[in-house]
Inverse folding.
């Protein structure tokens, strides 16, 4: 079998790249180790930068998103009962879009499968070969049969636990990592959101976030211990703690209900360099991870896909290589800025176990400066809506 680009991973990165390339006549095959149902069962964030929205439109897969999404012109930052808005519209003229990542992935599957998309599910033992030559190939097994796909390029879109990053020799690869001493306990409930805009709360009991998916589907998080498990938290205990961490005006209006999903995610900052090894390119979570505080996970994958899509089209249409030669440098330049912003927001709004009284004073001074300084708010707004590609 032969194709132009083998894409490993059928998450949002791999599917979006596949659809974008398809529209420019570039042939791809997506290899996904799970089933479509399993991939779509994952609960992920739902904040999209305008850059991601524009990529979805360019991929001709934005119709339902445009119909069902919510446009948000700002967020609310709270510290106890004090709260203030960061107005993206006023400070940047831009906004973000609320549309669940699961819906993004669903839309991408639908459009790929309605067209000529070649997606192989339940693949096993995927391995990438000869990436340092101009004739790389990928092997995998499926239904007990071994397969080989010869190609021009391989896109590693297989997430943090995938094999693509491991294909780059350790002697070449540099990994940067920071683990945070807490997790996020997330609850999905079929209840109306407590606020029209997201509330990021840096309370003295720990971080909390009030988010949403639609007018009757809300997503809430509270910072929790890494030793916690979801079963340690009844719904009542979760709602009680959330109410203690958000402004009292919001707590009074909060509509609670049974959790339809409850999970704990650890927080990590991670980047691997380089994001290219010969004919192999890493995209999205395969190359980098951010703590979810800045809502950058999918949005950092988007800029990788933007750079790689244009680089591959340039190669196939014009035979030029400066796009693929500069991919890693350009992708990492934007990734590191998103890593900094996500790390900064995480430090601003979470309580750290070893925090001294002085550290707490610094945190409060940071929030007070943000509350009272327009330029500080503009810096947050520019990063949250998304820096230019
Ligand atoms: N072979 C084939 N598929 C694989 C392999 C493998 N060896 N390893 C992982 N995969 C698949 C996973 O099953 C998953 O569906 O690759 C896909 C990777 O998808 P994501 O982890 O969602 O990563 P990405 O597409 O880059 O999306 C990034 O999703 O996880 C969130 O927070 C993240 O918002 C960010 C976005
Ligand atoms: C979410 O809606 O799941 C969400 C929103 C904003 C974040 C993180 C998660 O920063």
């Amino acid at each position: 079998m032969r194709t132009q680009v083998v894409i490993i991973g059928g998450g949002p990165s791999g599917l979006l790249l596949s659809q974008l390339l398809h529209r420019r006549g570039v042939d791809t095959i997506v290899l996904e180790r799970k089933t479509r149902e399993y991939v779509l069962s994952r609960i992920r964030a739902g904040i999209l930068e305008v850059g991601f929205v524009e990529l979805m439109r360019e991929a001709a897969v934005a119709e339902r998103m445009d119909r069902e999404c919510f446009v948000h012109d700002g967020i609310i930052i709270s510290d106890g009962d004090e709260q203030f808005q960061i107005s993206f519209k006023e400070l940047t003229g831009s906004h973000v879009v609320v549309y669940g990542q699961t819906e993004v992935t669903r839309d991408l599957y639908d459009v790929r499968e309605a067209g000529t998309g070649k997606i192989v599910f339940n693949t096993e033992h995927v391995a990438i070969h000869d990436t340092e030559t101009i004739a790389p190939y990928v092997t995998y097994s499926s239904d007990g049969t071994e397969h080989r796909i010869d190609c021009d390029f391989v896109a590693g879109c297989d997430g943090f636990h995938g094999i693509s990053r491991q294909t780059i020799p350790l002697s070449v690869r540099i990994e940067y990592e920071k683990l945070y001493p807490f997790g996020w306990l997330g609850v999905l409930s079929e209840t109306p959101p407590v606020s029209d805009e997201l509330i990021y709360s840096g309370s003295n009991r720990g971080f909390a976030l009030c988010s949403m998916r639609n007018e009757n589907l809300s997503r809430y998080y509270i910072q929790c211990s890494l030793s916690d498990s979801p079963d340690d938290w009844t719904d009542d205990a979760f709602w009680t703690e959330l109410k203690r961490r958000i402004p009292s005006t919001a707590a009074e209006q909060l509509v609670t209900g049974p959790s339809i999903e409850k999970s704990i995610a650890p927080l990590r900052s991670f980047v691997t360099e380089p994001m290219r090894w010969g004919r192999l390119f890493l995209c999205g979570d395969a190359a980098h991870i951010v703590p979810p505080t800045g809502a950058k996970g999918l949005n950092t994958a988007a800029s990788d896909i933007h750079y790689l899509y244009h680089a591959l089209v340039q190669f196939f249409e014009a035979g030029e290589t400066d796009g693929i030669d500069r991919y890693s440098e350009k992708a990492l330049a934007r990734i590191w800025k998103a890593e900094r912003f996500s790390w900064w927001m995480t430090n601003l709004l979470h309580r750290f176990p070893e925090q001294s009284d002085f550290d707490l004073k610094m945190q409060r001074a940071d929030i007070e400066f943000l509350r009272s300084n327009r330029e500080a708010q503009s810096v947050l707004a520019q990063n949250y809506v998304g820096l230019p590609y």
In short: Residues 84 and 371 are 6 Å apart (CA to CA). The first strand starts at residue 5 and ends at 8. The first helix runs from residue 12 to 22. The chain has two domains: 5-72+96-177+268-345, 180-267+351-385.
